[in-house]
Amino acid sequence: MSQAAVKASSVPDSNRWKALVFIALAQLMVVLDATIVNIALPSAQQDLGISDGNRQWVVTAYALAFGGLLLFGGRIADLWGRKRAFVVGLAGFAAASALGGAATNEAMMFGARALQGVFGALLAPAALSLLAVMFTDAKERAKAFGIYGAIAGAGGAVGLILGGFLTEYLDWRWTFFVNIPFAVIAAAGAWFVIREPEGGRNRNPLDIPGVLLSTLGLVALVYGFTRAESDGWGDAVTVGMFVASAVLLLAFVVTEAKVKAPLLPLRVVTDRNRGGIYLSLGLAIIGMFGLFLFLTYYLQIVQGYSPVKTGFAFLPMIVGMIAGSTQIGTRLMTRVAPRLLMGPGFLVAAVGMLMLTQLEVDSSYAALLLPAMLLLGLGMGTAFMPAMSLATMGVKPQDSGVASAMVNTSQQVGGAIGTALLNTIAASATTTYIADHIGGAATRSQQQLVQLEGMVEGYTTAIWAAVGILVAAALIAFTFVNAGKPGSSPVASSEDGAEEELAVPVVAH
């Protein structure tokens, strides 16, 4: 990049804070969609006549398209320009949502969900990379990523509340239609407000072998975990998917090391700090995704909460995430090294998770669930915010799309692993508990109590595993992430040293 281009790109855009509103709105829509549909699933299944065996495809079709195409979506954003990719992603997501809301059979529903995943894979990395190239001052970057991190973390819980309201008081179709106003407002705002810095395009020809290998490898990986949840880890197709994924992703790495214009330049992931962030974020999401699922089931089935009441029960987690991200993370990010926010953040979340291992059938919400969720939210919000910022810091502008896509990929794959792994642990513990205790239950009510106790035993066993996973995320953050506080020392450079050094002063000057 020429010195003139560097100088031009370091001049902040006067509309950047207005742009943040529309970027945040789009991010909220994508994150909401991950949980809002789960609440509507029972009603949609009944209306559309979807069998129990096929029900998972409402979630899986979205996860496969979104997870499989993220790297491709990030590269398209670098090629087309992030603003154009962002607006096209929003328009496509809105159209796919309209199709899902109007679905008359299961094929139409599955197709709509897959399309949502395709356009989500274009939209999500474009949103994060727009923030990365628009907010270059260290303090401003901290505030912008604080807001973005809060939305990324709390959006899932907001989806539970909104999904509960729409399903209970309107109709499940509104969990799809609600995306349309979000997308229209965000797209219109982005079109008129966002001005992308010059010189950030990657106009190299598309790496077709890389696209095919990464997409097929990630789809096989996500599908392997999804299938493990329903058919078991020893199932022939499950094992075949994992083997195929390993072969394809290994071939992808070999290809990327050799081609002239790779889809994912290896310098993006081999950088010590970014590698540590992708790994620790992925692990943290494994713990979080399983927990959302278990707490939703616990509150609705064991405690008998309505969908709306369940959504509101997650409010302390939302409050904690917003406080951790915008108050703790934003205020301290320019004063301390990122690992001193990420490591302790994951450990605080692990303490909240540890409290939830004490769950019983009649546990008090105020005495146990509320403080545990508050700690979880605080810890995750504090850790997510510097992680999101550092993952794209020091990256050359023309690589910011794929670097952003890797953040989303680690979250998406982490979510797939978390749901499958923790569900399997929970199901196994529940089965064992019920088999051991059902013999002593003479009456119908005693048998029902054993069933509920078995479910809670399963949840707490899986939550113990989640505690260990969060502690591992903290250790990785402390060990791998060695960047200094923004503005004090450069981010550890990758092998592409000269060009990365150019980028660092633009980020923290």
Automatic annotation (TrEMBL):
Keywords: Antibiotic resistance, Cell membrane, Membrane, Transmembrane, Transmembrane helix, Transport. Its main location: membrane. It is a multi-pass membrane protein. It is found in: Cell membrane. GO terms for cellular component: plasma membrane. The chain crosses the membrane at residues 20-41, 56-73, 85-103, 115-135, 147-166, 172-194, 206-225, 237-255, 276-299, 311-328, 340-359, 365-387, 462-481. Residues 19-485 form the Major facilitator superfamily (MFS) profile domain. InterPro entries: EmrB-like, MFS, MFS_dom, MFS_trans_sf, Sugar_transporter_CS. Residues 488-509 are annotated as: Disordered. Signal peptide: none annotated. GO terms for biological process: response to antibiotic. GO terms for molecular function: transmembrane transporter activity. This is MFS transporter. The lineage of its organism: Bacteria, Bacillati, Actinomycetota, Actinomycetes, Kitasatosporales.
